[in-house]
Amino acid sequence: xxxxxxxxxxxxxxxxxxxxxxxxxxxxxxxxxxxxxxxxxxxxxxxxxxxxxxxxxxxxxxxxxxxxxxxxxxxxxxxxxxxxxxxxxxxxxxxxxxxxxxxxxxxxxxxxxxxxxxxxxxxxxxxxxxxxxxxxxxxxxxxxxxxxxxxxxxxxxxxxxxxxxxxxxxxxxxxxxxxxxxxxxxxxxxxxxxxxxxxxxxxxxxxxxxxxxxxxxxxxxxxxxxxxxxxxxxxxxxxxxxxxxxxxxxxxxxxxxxxxxxxxxxxxxxxxxxxxxxxxxxxxxxxxxxxxxxxxxxxxxxxxxxxxxxxxxxxxxxxxxxxxxxxxxxxxxxxxxxxxxxxxxxxxxx
Length: 350
Ligand SMILES: NC(=O)C1=CN([C@@H]2O[C@H](COP(=O)(O)OP(=O)(O)OC[C@H]3O[C@@H](n4cnc5c(N)ncnc54)[C@H](OP(=O)(O)O)[C@@H]3O)[C@@H](O)[C@H]2O)C=CC1
Ligand SMILES: C[C@H]1O[C@H](OP(=O)(O)OP(=O)(O)OC[C@H]2O[C@@H](n3cnc4c(=O)[nH]c(N)nc43)[C@H](O)[C@@H]2O)[C@@H](O)[C@@H](O)C1=O
What we know:
Elements: E1 7-10, H1 15-26, E2 32-33, H2 45-55, E3 59-62, H3 70-75, H4 77-97, E4 102-106, H5 135-155, E5 159-164, E6 166-168, H6 181-196, H7 200-207, H8 212-221, E7 228-232, E8 238-239, E9 241-243, H9 244-257, H10 260-265, E10 276-278, E11 284-285, H11 286-297, E12 302-306, H12 321-326, H13 334-348
Parallel strand pairs: 1-2, 1-3, 3-4, 4-5, 5-10, 6-9, 7-12
Antiparallel strand pairs: 8-11
Helix pairs in contact: 1-9, 2-4, 4-5, 6-11, 6-13, 7-8, 11-13
The structure holds NADPH dihydro-nicotinamide-adenine-dinucleotide phosphate and the ligand C[C@H]1O[C@H](OP(=O)(O)OP(=O)(O)OC[C@H]2O[C@@H](n3cnc4c(=O)[nH]c(N)nc43)[C@H](O)[C@@H]2O)[C@@H](O)[C@@H](O)C1=O.
């Protein structure tokens, strides 16, 4: 990629896409192409074909997807498989037809078997059954990896897949039902603290409702009260969290420095499993995460574990040897990142 290359970021307003946009701008890339979801619905084959025909991007970051936490994945199963397969089929196929020089496809570590040996290496893909709560999403992501791999092999394209761990950062989704655990707990614990301080105005403003009674009733549904916060599941599952700006930096690093062909020449004779894990290689339990957020937010109440909610995979720690060997390592440690995202939330929640 050179600084004038025409680069399309699909999903530029999302958690990862917005961080990729900032990262590229900061590095001096000046020909970046973006479209909002409203301007271009990537599930629409004809519109995506027209877009590529007119714009002819040279590089593509595919960070648009239907994304959500464990309950969203488990509830909207059809949407997660349909939207994700449509988006990636359209973008990857049109990238091939219009001679895109390089494409980066974002998968997820949920592609690995539910009971994979830890930490999970790239070659564990398709070696056992998946976690059921996010199986439709994971299958869409696996088909995206295999699509990139197949186009590379049959058509000589240069499409690279990366498998990020759980991400968090600015522009994350803080919805109490549909979000991932880290933003959900930041918001729930913050709101519980506001309730304990009897700051009715701040609670109403955060939830954008017209009365404190409505706000309290809504929060009760999610187990948020002035003296306790509900945590889904047992608190025992472990998760690995990567700051979204580190994730974006890894994506740009890979786009700048790697080619699909390098990935099986460097001692790897197998053309399959050329995807790259992106993570920190460190994880913590959900209980420990909740305690950390509680400390940072300054909430004094209790954490109550609701075991009727799913735990999901008990552990999905990435093996980041491949990424580290390429010369990239994360910078932001979890406690620093949680402090940053809490401050970001305080400045952006109304
Ligand atoms: N967040 C995480 O923890 C993880 C994310 N990933 C992957 O990283 C990538 C980015 O995720 P993340 O940034 O968190 O997701 P976000 O939900 O924050 O952003 C997704 C973006 O895609 C856009 N989008 C969704 N559907 C369409 C559509 N039909 N047409 C056009 N645009 C669409 C959204 O626009 P709009 O909001 O307007 O719909 C949004 O800008 C995804 O591939 C995801 O699977 C992988 C592992 C973990
Ligand atoms: C990134 C990843 O995201 C999803 O997988 P997940 O890691 O299981 O997602 P999660 O962040 O929602 O939950 C992590 C853990 O945390 C627990 N938990 C506690 N309390 C809350 C809570 O309040 N909200 C949420 N969401 N989870 C909670 C929750 O029960 C679970 O044990 C995939 O569907 C898949 O899409 C994917 O790739």
